[in-house]
Design goal:
The complex is a heterodimer. By secondary structure, chain A is an alpha/beta fold. Chain A is built from seven helices and 20 strands. Chain B has one domain: P-loop containing nucleotide triphosphate hydrolases (Rossmann fold), CATH 3.40.50.300. The chains are: A alpha/beta, B alpha/beta. At the A-B interface, α5 and α6 of A face α2, β7, α3 and β8 of B.
């Protein structure tokens, strides 16, 4: 691991901070990253957090040993530390991320790296909570987790980031190797005391007939940039991504999603809805690449942006690169304000203009939440949406 | 019930209504007929309170309350209901949620608590049955993917649910087959009673075969130029509108 970190550090020094001439950074300035640095933190479980069952906690990027000791699903989940010589490809699995200088900077600062093997005949559900509790100013904290999900295993992984103070930059690096017939539901729903700034890299390697669903709601960070790379590497694999960004103030949310259709008969669907108020900005860079042998690909990509103020901005860049000839691929992007005729229609039934606007905003948001694979998230998400709209 | 006095109104400096005087007493059904572009739909929108149209002079009173300057939602709360010619689709908002929100807005205005969910479902199912719509209709998004007939039935569902004082039907018969027309007309007849009024805007006699109007008005170039009864409708069917301009 140290060798990989050292190599990444060198690569970052060669590449430098990303500039706006790079497609993935065209509308997101990397300048503020330069004020942050990796520094050692105290690792102790905060008193204000109540431990939950089947929950693995990371404190300032380091696995909380107690949560693992008390973990009740050990017969299905085993843990190895990535501190001995490892196959580099488990860490550098994404061909896209290894071109990103910020990926290398993040990797060079990882304090704790874990390899999780998950095998089960019964459906599992676990929570992963990253707690950031540091008094160090402009601290950058990164953690690396590699998940190997066994054949026929069905698992829901609910991930949260909690910040108890400070304005730290939290970084997650996560790779998921999904074996044959496995089913992964990965939810990322932010909470009120989410990180001030968040950067994430998620790579999913999908084997034969495996299924992936990503459910994501972002609403509380000031800065959030996520890279998703989904590699559909074998026949019959399927990926569904549903992301809702609720953005206001001067918040800046940026989603980079790359779906590689590397095998025939695979399907993918991306839906990203951004609701923007005040001076906020959102970026959608979505790309689907269909290789020549990936015949019978079925792919859809949609980005919708609802602008609630004249100062808010949405940058949408949906892309398709198709090298196969027997595929069904669609993509679309819309950006606009609330529809006046819809508001008029609702008002004509006795609802005030404000109530009408709220109903339409809520419907735009719920369009994503209703498609979440983990239906257990719905009530939490509805509360988030309602609070955001009425806040 | 409804009194319009010398209403002049238009859109973007173009005057469309050129002095409309109209009185619809309680318990009566009035019809306005006219060519395309004569101002019929503008009149419906002006009565409902569509802010896209500007009233330059005249007044509108509903039950002796001046509603000329009133917002569209307040006119709804006062008892005006517009059956839209082209109802908009609202993805993600279910019919059930929409109806409940509308009912509760009216109940709140009357100082009542929100409607009980069981009572709402019971009432809605009864109306759905009369309109020959399945109960699953309530789960669908407002007007999304609705056929022409379903859109108009949805308008009548809302009419019967909100039970206003005045219903303005803006070409509700357009795009309907005979069966749907019969069901929609039956819904309007169910709504109709001595305590409310109906204004029907239409091109054709066929809706009036099912809903007998009390008074018929003919509108040409933003003015009501003739008023009569069903005999006038028959004359229009036979001779068109040209003879009225002579």
């Amino acid at each position: 691991m140290e060798k990989i970190k050292s190599s990444s550090s060198q690569i970052f020094q060669d590449l430098g901070y990303p500039k706006t001439n790079l497609e993935n950074w065209k509308y997101t300035s990397s300048k503020f990253f330069q004020n942050y640095s990796f520094q050692k933190n105290k690792i102790h479980f905060p008193q204000e957090i109540n431990r939950q069952n089947n929950t693995i906690y990371f404190i300032n990027g380091v696995l909380d040993d107690t949560s693992w000791e008390n973990f009740s699903l050990k017969k299905n989940i085993s843990l190895e530390k990535i501190d001995s010589p490892v196959d580099e490809s488990t860490i550098l699995s994404s061909q896209n991320f290894i071109k990103e200088s910020m990926f290398h900077l993040s990797l060079s600062g990882v304090q704790d790296a874990n390899y999780w093997r998950i095998i089960s005949n019964n459906p599992l559900e676990i929570n992963i909570v990253y707690i950031f509790d540091t008094s160090i100013e402009n601290n950058m904290i990164a953690s690396l987790n590699v998940f190997s999900i066994g054949d026929n295993t069905e698992i829901k992984i609910n991930e949260k980031k909690i910040s108890l103070n400070s304005s730290c930059l939290g970084i997650s690096l996560s790779n998921f190797f999904c074996s044959e017939n496995s089913n992964l539901s990965h939810s990322l729903v932010t909470n009120d005391n989410n990180l001030d700034k968040s950067l994430s890299f998620y790579n999913y390697k999908m084997q034969k007939n495996s299924n992936l669903a990503i459910d994501n709601v972002n609403h509380s960070s000031n800065f959030d940039k996520k890279f998703f790379e989904i590699d559909l590497d074998d026949e019959g694999s399927d990926a569904e991504v549903n992301i809702l960004n609720l953005v206001k103030g001067t918040q800046h949310y940026d989603n980079n999603i790359l779906v590689n259709h590397n095998a025939p008969n695979c399907s993918s669907r991306q839906k990203v809805n951004n609701i923007l108020d005040n001076q906020s900005t959102a970026v959608f860079n979505g790309k689907v690449i269909v290789l020549k042998n990936a015949q019978k690909t079925d792919s859809e990509q949609s980005n919708k942006n609802l602008l609630l103020s004249e100062q808010s901005k949405a940058h949408s860049n949906p892309q398709l690169e198709i090298f196969a000839d027997d595929v069904k691929c669609g993509h679309g992007s819309t950006t606009g304000a609330l529809d006046d005729s819809s508001i008029f229609y609702l008002r004509s039934r006795g609802l005030s203009e404000e109530e009408s606007r709220k109903i339409l905003i809520e419907a735009f948001a719920k369009e994503i939440v209703e498609d979440f694979s983990n239906s257990g998230l719905e009530s939490d998400c509805n509360i988030i949406i309602s609070k955001w709209i009425n806040g | 019930m409804l009194v319009l006095e010398n209403i002049r109104a238009g859109i973007e400096d173009k005057e469309i209504l050129k002095g409309i005087n109209l009185e619809i007493p309680e318990g009566e059904v009035h019809v306005i007929m006219g060519r395309n572009g004569s101002g019929k739909s503008t009149l419906a929108n002006v009565i409902a309170g569509n802010e896209a149209f500007e009233i330059s002079s005249g007044s509108i009173h509903l039950n002796n309350v001046d509603i000329t300057e009133m917002s569209i939602e307040n006119r709804s709360l006062q008892g005006i209901f517009l059956c839209f010619q082209y109802p908009v689709s609202i993805p993600g908002v279910s019919m059930a949620y929409f109806l409940q929100q509308a009912i509760n807005a009216h109940r709140k205005n009357q100082g009542l608590d929100d409607i009980d969910a069981v009572e709402f479902l019971k009432n809605s199912k009864e109306i759905l049955g009369e309109l020959q719509l399945d109960n699953s209709f309530l789960k669908r998004s407002v007007n999304e993917g609705f056929s022409g007939g379903e859109k108009k039935k949805s308008e009548i569902l809302q009419l019967l649910t909100l039970n206003p004082k005045l219903a303005v039907l803006d070409e509700t018969d357009s795009g309907l087959d005979v069966e749907a027309l019969r069901i929609v007309a039956s819904g309007v007849n169910k709504f109709r009673n001595k305590g409310n009024s109906v204004l029907i805007i239409t091109h054709y006699q066929r809706l009036l075969d099912y809903i007998q109007p009390d008074v018929v008005h003919i509108m040409i170039d933003g003015k009501i130029i003739k008023t009569g009864d069903m005999e006038l409708v028959k004359e229009i069917e036979e001779k068109g509108y040209s003879w009225l301009e002579e």
